[in-house]
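All the exercises in this workshop are built on plain-text protein records. A record pairs a protein's sequence with a compact description of its fold. The structure tokens are whole numbers drawn from a learned vocabulary of backbone shapes. Once this layout is familiar, the rest of the handout is easier to follow. An example says more than a description, so a record of this kind follows.
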Amino acid sequence: GRARIAAEVADMEARATAEIEAARARSGDELRAEIARLSAAATTDAVRAALDERTQQELIDGFIAKVGAGR
């Protein structure tokens, strides 16, 4: 009767609340990941803009030398 219906409604409400909280957590995680990705891209663009071609080549050559030295 009524008790069973009330219990089912309470169960549905609890499941809906849990689903909403899980979706909220996922969307927060996705937003944080997107912010991190955009920040990294902006930093890369800013560094590229700040470095002249010669400095960029020196950094690339230094990196290649380090990687080669590790072999």
About this structure: The chain has one domain: 2-69. The chain is about 95% helix and 0% strand. The two ends are 76 Å apart (CA to CA).
